[in-house]
Write a structure and sequence with these properties.
Blueprint lengths: L2 E3 L4 E13 L4 E7 L14 E7 L2 E6 L9 E7 L7 H8 L5 E8 L9 E7 L6 H11 L2 E8 L8 H4 L6 E5 H4 L4 H5 L6 E7 L1 H10 L8 E5 L16 E5 L4 E5 L6 H7 L18 E6 L2 E2 L7 H6 L2 E3 L4 E2 L3 E4 L2
Parallel strand pairs: 8-9, 8-11, 9-10, 11-12, 13-19
Antiparallel strand pairs: 1-2, 2-3, 2-7, 3-6, 4-5, 4-7, 13-14, 15-17, 15-19, 16-18
Length: 326
Amino acid sequence: MTVLNHSVREWETTLVVDELRTLTDGVVTLRLSDPNGQELPAWTPGAHIDLILSDSLVRQYSLCSLPRERDAWRVGVLRAPDSRGGSEFVHSKLSEGSSVRVRGPRNHFPLVTSPRYLFIAGGIGITPMLPMIEAAEATGADWRLVYGGRSRSSMAFLEELERYANRVDLWPEDERGMLDLQSLLSTPQPDILVYCCGPAGLMNAVEDGCAAWPAGSLHLERFAPKTPDDDPSDALDAFDVVCQRSGVTVPIEAGGGSILEQLENAGIDGVFGSCYEGICGTCECPVLEGEPAHRDSVLTADQHDSGDVIILCVSGSRSKRLVLDV
């Protein structure tokens, strides 16, 4: 059964793995389609979906197919050596014909129109870049991809990238050492947007390298939460959350868990969690009144400043009363 949850305006259904391919020792791709042959929802480059692998195991994976291909979605999954269960489940439990509950798509890493792009990918961070490259190519934009990995044999999708050989700079660490971010980023370019996805060390280094670039030049998608530079010291320990549509006020108590957890415990419908680390955006909720205390790693600086939305799993409140559209 397909469910459209109007509280969060997200689509959820069960799809079937109609193709599972091993690309490298550590990476597989899943092709997911509707068992009844229905078209899947539209999406844009940078979007990801939730794979609901069990009641307590939900993971996010970037869509790496093409948005125009509505008959199926593709995701690439790295078997992480320190897996908390998600990638291990995909690699060891799923096979062609398996059914998987899916929610989304959701996009906190959208491709903004630009005449020029620099894409920087590390490891499995290549996945969201694939549809972005196709979109940039389709619009005639000037683009370049710098793609790093431990070794050439560990780097997925190399065959797909061969047709863009003159625009793709492969950087296997065992052949070339670490990515030369200094030469890539030392001179700010006002007409280039930088898109980066990969391990935390790469993301932080790219963020530091783009510090002098014009505001809005850098776009990141993180796999792990960033340590906040300005953790809101004026966040309140206790406050009230007014759930406008539910007609319920929930007292948020110090030590009682996140806003998300306390709303779930109060039985509020339409709130969902996934990463519980502030990186996936599943629990994003509109703010009608009050001032959030942001601690997430997914919203932009402008979104933090506006206070129009909040990531419920990690953030708090600066005001005694926070009114949410839920």
